[in-house]
């Protein structure tokens, strides 16, 4: 590592909908991020405008002071850090005192255990799940829910602020960030399911869907998820920005956390079943607004190119 403490070398793993925007935000803030993605061509395309594409996870670990991981789940994060049995991850090559920033939605207890595991290797850790969607990630306006040791925050410096408009510091050890993200996902999943149910009822009752959308988005029943996701339904565009199976996973985590303390979550349970039904009906990889497709006897709007 060749950077100074004021200008760390930053690496980012996972150039998906959120990770690509975060890497762009880092570059816009003056960093030259090293990036890795399993799709080599995606990493190379990013690096053409600044930064560097790494061939391996070991390379990004060796070259960077801070590695930001933006993958789907805990299993993929394990692979990023510790390899897949055939190729090594980044942990083995990260220098003592370097920082790993974990941005996935995971079981908080797993995040706590990961902090201890990395500490034994001399690697600092931030539990730092994210929210806001691809557009906010690209503009540096997303939210990060973080928890970690003072040393981890000191190592991160201004890098977190380069990626997010809101960086919440929720605790001095891992777990609190993931707990807050799980609660956020409870609300997000329930709101999407409720929005789909409301639009489906309107379609069943013969209400003009565009008129319904206009009224609800200017009334007390509106939610951010209704406004955002029902625009996809009106456009007939289910290109996945966040897929149905993301909420199968995330609401599953919500229920796992609550089950451990015997805490009832009736609305979360129902929403989870709705996403499970959508997934097993063939919509697993469609946009999460495709949960509306589980409702019978309705005619959904055809594709019209209006999706936001």
What can you tell me about this protein's structure?
The chain has helices at 17-28, 40-47, 57-63, 74-82, 108-119, 133-139, 150-156, 159-163, 176-204, 209-216, 224-235, 244-260, 266-283, and strands at residues 10-13, 34-36, 52-53, 66-69, 99-102, 124-127, 130-131, 142-148, 164-169. It has 308 residues and is of the alpha/beta class. Strands 1, 2, 3, 4, 5, 6, 7, 8 and 9 form a 9-stranded mixed beta sheet that branches. β1, α1 (17-28) and β2 (34-36) form a beta-alpha-beta unit. The protein is globular and about 60 Å long. The termini are far apart. The model is unreliable at 1-5 (pLDDT under 50).
Labels describing this entry:
9 strands; single chain; Rossmann fold; N-(1-d-carboxylethyl)-l-norvaline Dehydrogenase, domain 2; globular; 308 residues; 9-stranded mixed beta sheet; alpha/beta; disordered N terminus
Short account of what is shown:
The chain contains 13 helices and nine strands. By secondary structure, the chain is of the alpha/beta class.
């Amino acid at each position: 590592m060749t950077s100074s403490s004021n200008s760390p070398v930053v690496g980012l793993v996972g150039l998906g909908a959120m990770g690509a925007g975060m890497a762009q935000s880092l570059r816009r803030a003056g960093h030259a991020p090293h990036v890795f993605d399993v799709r080599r061509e995606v990493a190379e395309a990013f690096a053409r405008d600044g930064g560097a594409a790494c061939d391996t996870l070991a390379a990004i670990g060796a070259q960077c002071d801070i590695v930001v991981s933006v993958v789907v789940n805990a299993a993929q994060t394990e692979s990023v850090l510790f390899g897949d049995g055939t190729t090594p991850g980044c942990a083995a090559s990260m220098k003592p005192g370097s920082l790993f920033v974990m941005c996935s939605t995971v079981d908080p207890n797993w995040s706590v255990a990961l902090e201890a595991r990395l500490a034994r290797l001399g690697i600092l850790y931030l539990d730092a799940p994210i929210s806001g969607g691809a557009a906010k990630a690209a503009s540096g306006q997303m939210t990060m829910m973080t928890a970690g040791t003072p040393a981890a925050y000191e190592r991160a410096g201004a890098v977190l602020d380069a990626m997010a408009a809101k960086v919440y510091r929720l605790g001095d050890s891992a777990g609190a960030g993931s707990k807050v993200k799980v609660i956020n996902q409870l609300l997000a999943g329930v709101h999407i399911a409720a929005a789909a149910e409301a639009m489906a009822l309107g379609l069943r009752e013969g209400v003009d869907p565009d008129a319904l959308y206009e009224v609800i988005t200017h009334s007390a029943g509106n939610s951010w998820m209704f406004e955002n996701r029902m625009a996809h339904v009106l456009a007939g565009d289910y290109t996945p920005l966040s897929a149905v199976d993301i909420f199968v996973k995330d609401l599953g985590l919500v229920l796992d956390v609550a089950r451990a303390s015997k805490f009832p979550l009736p609305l979360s349970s129902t929403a989870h079943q709705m996403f499970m039904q959508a997934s097993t009906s063939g919509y697993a990889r469609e946009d999460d607004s495709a949960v509306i497709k589980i409702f019978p006897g309705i005619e959904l709007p055809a594709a019209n190119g209006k999706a936001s």
